[in-house]
Amino acid sequence: MANHHGDFIWYELLTSDADAAARFYGAVTGWQTRAAQGTDRDYRIFGSRGEDVGGLMALPADAARAGMRPTWLGYVAVDNVDATADEIVRAGGTEHMQPTDIPGIGRFAMLADPQGVPFYVMRGVSDGTSTAFDQSQFGHCHWNELATSDPTAALAFYQARFGWEKGDAMPMGEMGEYRFLQHRGQTIGAVMKRMPEGPPPAWMFYFGTEDIDAAAKAVPGNGGTIHYGPAEVPGGVFIIVASDPQGALFGLVGPRKS
Fold first, then answer.
1. How far apart are CA 139 and CA 129, in angstroms?
2. Rounded-to-integer distance, Cα 15 and Cα 42, Å
3. Residue 17: DSSP 8-state
4. Residue 97 domain-assigned?
5. Tens of pLDDT along 78-117?
6. Burial group, residue 34, by CB count within 10 angstroms (0-12, 13-18, 19+)
7. What is residue 62's predicted lDDT score, i.e. its pLDDT?
8. Residue 116 belongs to a domain with what CATH number?
9. Which structural domain, as residue segments, surrounds residue 44?
10. Is pTM, for the whole model, over 0.85?
11. Are 106 and 123 a contacting pair, CB within 8 Å?
12. Do strands 118-124 and 71-77 pair parallel, antiparallel, or not at all (unpaired)?
């Protein structure tokens, strides 16, 4: 695996209606959807300009019964899945899915940090490099944002597990600060305190779009909901925070063309 320990390497949508979700994201982001090969699950791959950027599958019935709602989850590359999973549990995290092999793909586990935010860790079997996170390409993830109940504890947790570093911070008044995350010299996202009336602690992922205003029309035009934006952020680009028709939160980021 050419990716480094601590890299975001994949994004996965767990949803209550895979067919409808595929249509929605195709209309909003331009992603193509195809069936994954070599698995007996109905797992689908989102692609952008011939490159794989994420996955899509039905929310498992047991997870839905336990109260899990449609959501996007991120995969973080690690050198050793079993050792990382053990370390996360010892640090106060939770193991939701024990380390498991996917033949021909790699070994992975689903965990949660001490504040209850779920994510995957994975070690791939190939030497290929994932470009699912690539800030230079539209259709790929450009930003990984954690809204959590305890930013200080969360930062310490992820720093110790994945080697992420604290970058600069922007003040947010009573909300505290918006603290940038750096990994191997690149700013990959940020950590912030969750809004008191907002969703539970979670990671949210912002995908690059060529035209934020066109995306802002496409979201509600295809049954989604915009919760914030378009709003300008540093760098001269604009963001949208939205939910798809099944309720999964996601973000879009890109330029304004008009």
1. 17
2. 12
3. -
4. yes
5. 999 999 999 999 999 999 999 999 888 899 999 999 999 9
6. exposed
7. 86
8. 3.10.180.10
9. 8-124
10. yes
11. yes
12. parallel
